[in-house]
Amino acid sequence: MRKNGIEPNLITFSTLICGHCKIGNMEAAMEAFRLHNEMLEAGVTPNVFTVSCLIDGLCKDERTSEALELFLAKTRAGSSNIETNVMDSSLSSPNHMMYTALIQGKQLHALVMKLGFEHVIHLQTSLVNVYSASCGIVDAHKMFDEMPEKNVICWTALISAYVENQKPNMALQLFRQMQMENVEPDQVTVTVALSACADLGALEMGEWIHSYVRRKKGLNTNLCLKNALINMYATCGDIEAARRLFDSLQRKDVTTWTSMIVGHALHGQAEEALKLFSEMKETRESPKKKKKNNGCNGSASPIVPNDVTFIGVLMSCSHAGMVEEGKRQFRSMIEDYGLKPRDSHFGCMVDLFCRAGMLEEAHDFISKMPVRANAVVWRTLLSACGLNGNVELGSRVRQKLLELEPSHAGDSVVLSNIYASKGMWERKMVVRDQMMGRRRSPGCSSIEVGSGIFEFVAADDDHPLKSEIIEVLKHLVVNMKAYGYSTQLSCLEDY
């Protein structure tokens, strides 16, 4: 352009910047900012569109801190022409795990109100996502309640917020409430609701959602939704239904295969999981649409396993006691596929050794890990020491756990039981004395009855049907004793 004597103007610079930002990688972002600097040097003032493109480009490149800094810099500079698209890009940045501090979300919320955009529905929805990402689920719900009109996207955002904040029961309650208020869920809402069912093990609710999907005309049953159904059935215990659905799909992606492999692994069906993994590696993914180019169709690409796939594979090896195969798959993940092991993979390998009774090998593996082992990994080994009565290693592992989570009483209980099983009562008493003043957080269980999910903890007496439940339990114990069952008191009663 300049070779022909034509100087770029605002429209030219903005178009070039926007084009580079849409690519969404580091190189393109750097070129966009180079053009931005050149624009300023040329005396051309960026407009709202230009700034919005830059912020959006930074968000796509997951440089969310810089995106927010740029936005705040422009607002401090006195840019009075901020529009909703700029605000929306800025509000999306904390949602990428980088800038999730609640205070930033509240500051942006205040700015939205100051600029008079508080009733713009897509900004309100973005604020729900911001508060959710920063663990401010109460503020997210309050933001939702303040919306004068709520569409399916708003409802989906709040339902997703509760799932992401480990409150799937509330997510399903909102899913029901949404339909009672005559808001039809779309495929995204249904997918999120199925994820909540999987988290809760709510099979009946999941089956109802599947039935809803089948009878609802016009609902886009894409592969993502079908993958969510497979995962729900597998996680909730109906592995046969998951496999039937899996086998019925003509097109499968890596998530489809992974969901089924992990499902078989969770059900202890190691042979089926490993067989499926072998089939997956030999399968090529069909293209979404056939492309007509000189009479040739789009070529199929191989399905490459991801890190989650290998979690299912390693779990299968662990359940089947296939130590050498597990070690081979772990090496293959790193060497053949270039995947970096995460805590879950290291945990699977430790579990593999522990289930095979190879406790010293497990300890050696942990010691040679390239990252510091977390408490879950060490706790897996401690539990194995308890099952195998390994006093010496159990004591050493407990010392490691004291460095990581000194207040976790459950580890002391395991060590105490190890001492008791070996008749080392004095050491058991020492551990018990150390535990005084510390109580374990009660574990929460849930049960699905009809369309409701009921949660309870040990010694819970708040349920309205408490008397009837206790009566049923008494009859159950009587029947179990009639068949020769004898109760065994846990060592936990000492505490």
Automatic annotation (TrEMBL):
It comes from Ficus carica (Common fig). The keyword Transferase does not apply. Keywords: Repeat. GO terms for biological process: RNA modification. NCBIfam families: PPR. PPR repeats lie at residues 9-46, 151-185, 253-287. This is Pentatricopeptide repeat-containing protein. Pfam families: E_motif (PF20431), PPR (PF01535), PPR_2 (PF13041). GO terms for molecular function: RNA binding. Coiled coil: none annotated.
